[in-house]
Amino acid sequence: MAIKTLAILLSLAASLQAAIIKRVACPDGVNSATNAACCSLFAIRDDIQENLFDGGECGEEVHESLRLTFHDAIGIGSFGGGGADGSMIIFEEIETNFHANLGVDEIVDEQKPFIAKHNITAGDFIQFAGAVGLSNCPGAPRLDFFLGRPSATAPAPDLTVPEPFDTVDSILARFADAGGFSPAEVVALLASHTVAAADHVDPSIPGTPFDSTPETFDTQFFVETQLRGTLFPGTGGNQGEVESPLRGEIRLQSDSELARDSRTACEWQSFVNNQAKIQNNFKAAMLKLSILGHNIDDMVDCSDVIPIPPTFTGKATFPAGLSHNDVEQACATAAFPTLATDPGPATSVAPVPPS
Fold first, then answer.
1. What is the pLDDT of residues 195-247, one digit of tens each?
2. Whole-angstrom distance, CA of residue 236 vs CA of residue 149
3. pTM score
4. Has 213 been labeled as part of a binding site?
5. Which residues contact 301 (CB under 8 A, 6 or more apart)?
6. What amino acid positions are annotated as catalytic residues?
7. Which residues participate in heme b binding (predicted)?
8. Is 194 a known ligand-binding residue?
């Protein structure tokens, strides 16, 4: 027994020593990383936190940077495209004119000066900025980041990005074609909408969030998409937009239908008040998305450069004035979770202000 215990202790000591040896000091004299190739990312991280994300806010630039990670990466499949290769920036004049990419040119133009300033490819920068930006949102997972995407050599083809008016069939088929994403992984990726807002789905109401807590990566989005909607004045008249349960909130047709489709409804409901699941599943799905078109074995794991997001300990609730009676039950095998209702009269959700 003593020999076995000694062997275990020696093994643990060797593992610890190996871990210590693997970490290297960076030339800046401040930071260290598991791989020297990651050291250059600290300066980029600090620059974008201060000058792109307004000192570390979970605001519009974070929302748009996270959107860009998806729009760039999903450009791959049976009919071409290089995936997460930065083609959205390198071939901006082509790809930002695709209908599904309406408005993406704004964040592309904001990110381009940082790419020009730092020694990083567009594909790496897009995914890095998305991961760093999300770290500003309380409740978010710490996303993985792998370095080593070569520059795109051709634009992605049109029609690779699903749109809000697409059917559930076409959305699930597009994700499956792009990277073998399952319906459950599609639902996990849509957790990004908990810190998102729309500027162009309905141009008359820019900055309209998809849930009542766009500054927090929580499960509120999965509650509010499952509630019966109301047609408020000035909303619901645009393609891809449907009735929302709250004034000042926008609901995408695609989100509404995925929340109610038999292939995705139970998975959708399962995120309600399950902060650990939304974090773990979104992190895994985002890693898969972020390396589309690349072999992870050829890349360098620089995940330790990504900041640790603030924690979130709150609970999902029904918005004021609404209750379990307002749930449009869609999962046939499990009841909707029991939630408290916010106190007070019904209120309007404020738009996400431009920076």
1. 998 876 776 677 889 999 999 999 999 999 999 987 665 555 566 678 888 98
2. 40
3. 0.91
4. yes
5. 34, 35, 144, 145, 146
6. 71
7. 193
8. yes
